[in-house]
Amino acid sequence: MSLPDLAAELAALDARGLKRHRRLLESPQSARVVVDGREVVAFCSNDYLGLAGDPRLAAAAAEGAARYGVGAGASHLILGHAAAHHRLEDALAQFVRLPRALLFSTGYMANIGIVTALAGRDDAVFADKLNHASLNDAVLLSRAGFKRYPHGDLAALEKLLAASQARRKLVVSDAVFSMDGDIAPVTDLLRLCERYDAWLVIDDAHGFGVLGETGGGALQHYGVVSPRIVYMATLGKAAGVFGAFVAGEPDVIETLVQHARPYIYTTATPPLLAHALLASLEIIAAEHWRRELLAQLINQLKRGMAGLRWRLMPSDTAIQPLVIGPNDEALHVSEQLAARGVLVPAIRPPTVPQGSARLRISLSAAHSEQDVAQLLQALHDVGARA
Fold first, then answer.
1. Catalytic residues
2. pTM for this model (two decimals)
3. Which domains does the chain have, with CATH numbers?
4. What is the pLDDT of residues 110-125, one digit of tens each?
5. Measured CA distances, 129 to 33, 53, 108, 170, 200 (Å)
6. Residue among 49, 31, 53 nearest 41 (CA)
């Protein structure tokens, strides 16, 4: 493929309203940020508990840098597994009430590590059609049979499981779906896994820290415990820092240590981040008001959406998707909100299905009632002029 071919493809992408652009963030992540030289109220980030800019985490990171230096210098299996990493893994396992945990650099790498280590050519993976791209890519890399079922359709999943003759079966699902905001029926998924002798892999990137009484995530939210569960969560969203972890039975985690290529062949994350995350876990568990405020803001937003011409999808989480429809209209509404000092991203295909371009409104405990009121007023103003 020549350079002119690439240019033509990019131009076609732009013409369909699908070309992505980066904004320049010039301040710490928070509810009010400076973007491209202008202060706005942002409803864009996954900083659900408002911890990304917390000075206590910054202080913990500085303390970690003074103690451990800046870089890890090696992979975990060579000489990069610092005491801070080890303490964090123990703390995370205790936090989510599973026997053992393992750190990964990102959630994407963790999902690829889980699926490729546990499934291969003679196995089958059963996936919700709205799963995150990392889970889909993981299945393709594993070379296992790839069986996708309609979003949330347990009857369809059961038929697939009942018909499968695979050596090993994995059911993989987001816990909170990142573009719809709904929560997977984890209890029912586990019941099917027990019935058909399958593992249940849960990606709780958007539930960890937010769901559950102390922020323990989707498993705490549903009150489920099982040796069949392989649990993944990220640490750069509600936890406010960076990284990811997998938790589960000791033999599962040891299998990942021995066979998960994204773990084995990657330099460990800086131990200063692990040191900061230990402080983050304490804040998440202790400061219940953050989850309580977030719940209040979600209710305020949902009540204030009444009368809008666009459809708010059903969600009880911090992710509140407002479906606009056409790509160009979603971009236009997003731009009009930005002109009013409110930043909400327009999400378009292939991230979401064709014809369902939307505004992905992301709430945080860093927001105030006044911030949400400003967003609602802007939406009603734009809707009245559309």
1. 178, 206, 237
2. 0.95
3. 19-49+288-385 (3.90.1150.10), 55-286 (3.40.640.10)
4. 999 999 999 999 999 9
5. 34, 34, 17, 15, 16
6. 31
